Amino acid sequence: MNLRPEETEDTPATVESLRLELEACRRELDESHKRLEQLSGLFAHLSDAMAVNELDGSSFRAIPETIVKGDPLPSLLDALRRLTEENNRLREDFRDLFEEAPIPCMFEGVDTHFIQANKAALKLLGIKPEEVAETFGHSLVADTPENQRRLREAFELVESGKEAGGVEIELRRKDNGHPVWVQWWSRPAPNGEYTRTMMVDITERVLMEQTKAALEFALESGQVGDWELDLIHDTSRRSLRHDRCFGYDTPIPDSEWGIATFVHHVHPDDRTRVEGSLLSAAREFRDWTSEFRVVWPDGSTHWIAASGSIYRTKEGKAAQMLGIVMDVTERKRAEEALGASERLARGQVEELTRALDMLATKSAPDRLMEHISCTITEQLDAHSISVWRRDMASGLIGFEFAYEGGQILTKAEPRFAGMGLWLPMGDQWPWPEVFRTGKPSLISDIRTVPPFALRDRLVALGIISVLLVPMWVAGNLEGAIGIRFARERSFRPEEIELAQALANQAMLALQLTRLSAQSRESAVIDERNRMAREIHDTLAQGFTGVIVQLEAAEDAKLHGLTDEADDHLDRARNLARESLSEARRSVQALRPRALEKETLHEALNTLLARTTAATSTRSEFILQGTPRQLPPEWDENILRITQEALTNTLRHAQASHFKALISFGPDEVLLELSDTGHGFNPADGHAGFGLLGISERVDRMGGQLKIRSTRGSGTTLLIVLHPRELPGPVTS
C-alpha cells in the first residue's frame, strides 16, 4: 500500500494505535484460553466421574468456586459452550483484523522465514499466498552496506528481546526485484520463537527526497540559485546560491529582499528594462526571462540570467513567482571574445582583399604602400607606423619612411634632418631581438629605452608602446615595421597574426616599389602582374573560403551554437594562415605547397574538399584515364584555374554543386569545371580579373578555353591542352 507524503506524517500514531489494539486482542484471547483450559479440565473430570458413577461432592472439588455455587452441571456445560464460541469468535476477529489491516504485518521465525503475512504485506513485497512458507525476510533486503548495517543493528535488538522500531530499510520485491523503501518495526514473541513485524511503505517519500537531493546537487553543480518571490507581501525565499549570484556569502533575510532590493542590485544601465519586464510579466501572468548585469557589494559587475513563472491565487491574482538565477559572466566574456575574434578575422579578410585589389589595379606602387600603411593603423588602432630596411652589406637597420597623420613621410623630409636614421644594435637595445629571432616583439613603454634622436621624437609625439614586426622576402629578413601606440598596449595572438600578415603585405609593396623604381621595362611589369595574379589566386581565393566560414560562424552564433561557431572560426583561421603561406611562396616564386606534397589530381581533390567544407555547396572531383606527368608549371596553372573557378562559384554563383573533371587521353588533357549556379552571359563582357587570369594561364600552356554559360543555367569552363609528349604514369 502506498501512502501519500502527507499521510506518512501520521504513520507513527497509526502504527501505535494498531499495535495497542492487537495487544488488547491478544490479552483477551489469552484469558479465553485460560478459561477454556479450566473448563476443559472440569469437563474431563466430570465425564470420568459420570463414567464410573461417582459423581458426588468430591467430584466437584476441582470446580472453581465462582462456578460451583448454586450452578448445576448443565449451566457449566452451557458456560463451557459459550466460552468456546467466544474464543472462536475472537480468533476469527483477530484473523480478520490481521488479514485486512492496511499496515503490512507478518510473523517471522527466528531465521526470518515467514510464518504468516497479511494481504498488505503480500502486496507490498510482491509475494503470492502460496509462496509465504518458502520466503525468508533477509532474502528481500537490498544488499547495500548501509542497508545491511541497519538490518544488523535491528536484529541485535530483537535477539536481545527488545523491540526494533522505525528502522528505514530498502527491500526488493520478490516478483520483479523493484526497490521498496519501508519503515520497519519488529517485536519478539514472549517465548522467543518468532517475531511480530509491521512495515509502512515510504517509497514515495524516499524517492521524493532522492529527487530533491539530485536537484539540489544539479543546482549546486551548475551554481543555479532558486528563489520564490511573494508578490503580495513583497518578500522572498531564496537559496544561498541565489544570494551568491549577487555577491553575498551569507543569506539575506527573507523580509529584506523584495522587488526594490532586487532592482537596486541591477546595473543602472539595465535597471529600467529589467524592472519593467518583471512587473509586466506579473501583470500579464506570463513567464519572465532576462539577462542583465548586477553590481556586487565590492563594486564588480557580473552578468546574470534569470527566469521565473507566475502562480495565482484561487481568485486569479498573481501571488508568487518561482524561478532560478545563474551567474553567466564567463559565458558573456567568452561570447565577447568570440565576437572580437570574429570581427578581427573578418576585418583581416576585408583589408587584405582590398589590398589585393589595390595591388592588381593601382599602377603607382607608392599609393599601394600608403593604402597598406593606413590599413595597419586603422586595423590595430595605432597612432602611426615606421618602416625600417636592413642593409645587407653592413647589417645595420635604417629608417625608410613613416606614416603619420594620414601621409607618408620619407627619410628625405626636413623634419628628419640632422637625425641619425640608423638603429643602434647593441645588446642593451630591445629591437635586435626581432632580427635575431625573426618574431614580433613589443616595447611596452618606449620611455624606458635609453634616449637617442628618433626615440626622443616618438616620446614628443606621445608614443608609449611600439610593436616591432619583421618583414621577410624569400626567406630573408629584410626589415621591420614599428607600429606605434599612444597608450600602453598588449596583444592577443590573432592580433599579432594580423600585424604579421599586414607586414608581409607592406614588404610586398616595398618590393614592388623597388622594382618600379629600378625599371619600367616590360619584365618588371610582367613580374608585378605575376605577383598580383599569384596573390589573387592564393590570398583572394583563400579569403573567399574564410568569408564563407565566418558567415557560417555568424549564423551559428545567432542560433546560440557556440561550439559550432568556434569550429567555423578555427577553419577560417587555418584557411587564412594557409593563404598567407601561399602568398609568401608566391613572393618567393615557389611551387604551391599542395603540389609538393601531392600529385595534381590529389591536390585538386583536396582543394575542393577543403574549400567547400561546411558550406552549402557540394563539390565533386572526377578523374578519368591514367594520370600522366605534366610540366610543373602546367600542374600549377591547372590548380590555380580550378581554384579561381571554385572561388567564383562560391562568391557569385550561389551554386549547390561544383564539379571538377580532369581526363587524361592519349594525346590531350581535358579539364572541365562546372557549377549549377546563376550563370552569366559571356557576351556581356563581364570578364573580371579572375577570368582574365584563367585565360592568360591557358594561353601560356598553348591550350584552348571555352566558356559555356547562360543566366539561370550554371557555368562550364572547358580547357583542352595538347602536350607535345606525355611521359609515363604519375606515382604518388
Q: Can you offer a commentary on this structure?
A:
- There is one protein chain.
- With 732 residues, the chain is an alpha+beta fold.
- The chain is 48% helix and 21% strand.
- The protein has 21 helices and 22 strands.
- Strands 11, 12, 13, 14, 15, 16 and 17 form a 7-stranded antiparallel sheet that branches. A 5-stranded antiparallel sheet has the order 2-1-5-4-3, sandwiched between helices. Strands 7-6-10-9-8 form a 5-stranded antiparallel sheet, sandwiched between helices.
- Strand 16 and strand 17 form a beta hairpin.
- Helix 11 runs parallel beside helix 15.
- It is elongated and about 150 Å long.
The overall pLDDT average reads: 78
Outline type? elongated
Alpha-beta content class: alpha+beta
Give the count of helical stretches. 21
User: What is the helix fraction of residues, given as a range?
Assistant: 40-55%
What are the segments in which pLDDT stays under 50 over at least 5 consecutive residues? 1-8, 45-73
As a whole number of angstroms, the C-alpha radius of gyration is: 48 Å
